[in-house]
Amino acid sequence: MKSSRILYLVVFLSKFCISFSVVASFESMTKSHGYSKKSAAHEQDQQKSPQNSAVVPVPYPLPGYGSFTARSTVFSPLAFGAKGDGVADDSLVDGTLLAPARVSTWSKSSPYQWLNFKWVHNFTIKGTGFINGQGSQWWHSSPQLGGNQALRFYAGGNITVRDITIMNSALCHLKFDSCVGVEVNNVSISSPETSPNTDGIHLQNTRDTKIHNSNIACGDDCISIQTGCSNLHVHHINCGPGHGISIGGLGKDNSLGCVSNIKVENIYLQNTLSGVRIKTWQGGAGTVKNVSFYNIRVSNVAIPVVIDQFYCDKSRCRNQTRAVAISDVSYNQIIGTYSVQPMHLACSDDVPCTGVDLTDVRLKTSSSSYNQGFLPALCWNSYGKSQPPLLPSSIDDCLRRNINGDLIKKVERSHDSACQ
Ligand SMILES: *[C@@H]1O[C@H](CO)[C@@H](O)[C@H](O)[C@H]1NC(C)=O
Ligand SMILES: *[C@@H]1O[C@H](CO)[C@@H](O)[C@H](O)[C@H]1NC(C)=O
Ligand SMILES: *[C@@H]1O[C@H](CO)[C@@H](O)[C@H](O)[C@H]1NC(C)=O
Ligand SMILES: *[C@@H]1O[C@H](CO)[C@@H](O)[C@H](O)[C@H]1NC(C)=O
Ligand SMILES: *[C@@H]1O[C@H](CO)[C@@H](O)[C@H](O)[C@H]1NC(C)=O
């Protein structure tokens, strides 16, 4: 795709609640050098107030059409006919939104945002269109340059993203930070397995969230759940390639990690690095509690079930006694094939994992593995109960029983208070 054909949109919304409409019927624009009839997108507006249906959006700005520069391609969504009244919910993405492909086009001062929505409430983005971050130059830069997140919401409420496709982001594709009430439904996210740090959906400090009926293929976590997330329901997701569905890494640099009430069910993971994973750094504080994984199907996943409290991105990290406490995590119906190890529950020496429940875990070695052998299940300092069927047999006696319940409760309480 030539850069002259790029429609580049940067949105910075401030201080007030605003909704807007973006319709980029890119194909028809480039073909006709005009604007298409499909450009009106005030559908809810029209329903609410029929007299508004005569509002015709202004013609598309043709940013940098022919001669592309960053400065000439920053414009307001109001130019597309958006209302910005905080009431009209008229966002629709059809056609394709393309980010500038060349790293040099991006402002050095804020390279991390492309489509960025702050303080929006009761807002929906939907449509049959594509948001394409064109991130390949970022992925292959050396040293790694970071890059932009394709679609990000900050401090929003009641936000829905549905039906659209988000692809090839330089960094994570869809991010929610400090939001309350989020629904992601029927979206497709895709970037190559080899694209570094391209999480599919990344959540932090976000609660009351539903993510469902979506396909995610990327180079990092399909769904990444960071500190401050609670009441999250993830279901009917296809993930792969990618690193699976992950809580954490939490507790980096002795920080506080708090994640609770997470339900992940009816998931299919294919050719991923892990399946369902909780990872924490040594030295952190806080808790991960009340997490359930139900009906997780895996196919050629390296390690389907992971708790790693020794997470470290270098070859060695300093051993520390403090840890984010992990409790009440259930695994029920984890079924399929693995290529390295069926289960890896490595809990902190000083803060054991408690209330780990294993029910009906049936994992077989994958025939499509190039691996030279398989590791048995590992459980280190993890307490809980297991119920058959459990396969392979190394899972049978993996967990320790909750013998010292009182001590464990005490550990839990002291960590809990940090998250109140
Ligand atoms: C969002 O919509 C709900 C009900 O539809 C309404 O109660 C609430 O006030 C709205 N919030 C904002 C910020 O407009
Ligand atoms: C979300 O919508 C509900 C009603 O549907 C409303 O009560 C609530 O205030 C809204 N929350 C936000 C943060 O807009
Ligand atoms: C899902 O989104 C696609 C467009 O990407 C649309 O064609 C399809 O109808 C949607 N499915 C549902 C069930 O909404
Ligand atoms: C655990 O989380 C689920 C939601 O996944 C919630 O319905 C339930 O009330 C939570 N249990 C506790 C003890 O908080
Ligand atoms: C941390 O402790 C483990 C065993 O408990 C040991 O194998 C490892 O070498 C230690 N790491 C460092 C950096 O001291």
Automatic annotation (TrEMBL):
It comes from the Eukaryota. The keyword Transmembrane helix applies. Pfam families: Glyco_hydro_28. The chain crosses the membrane at residues 6-26. It is found in: Secreted, Cell wall. Keywords: Cell wall, Cell wall biogenesis/degradation, Glycosidase, Hydrolase, Membrane, Secreted, Transmembrane, Transmembrane helix. The keyword Membrane applies. GO terms for molecular function: polygalacturonase activity. GO terms for biological process: carbohydrate metabolic process; cell wall organization. InterPro entries: Glyco_hydro_28, PbH1, Pectin_lyas_fold, Pectin_lyase_fold/virulence. Belongs to the glycosyl hydrolase 28 family. This is Polygalacturonase. It comes from Nepenthes gracilis.
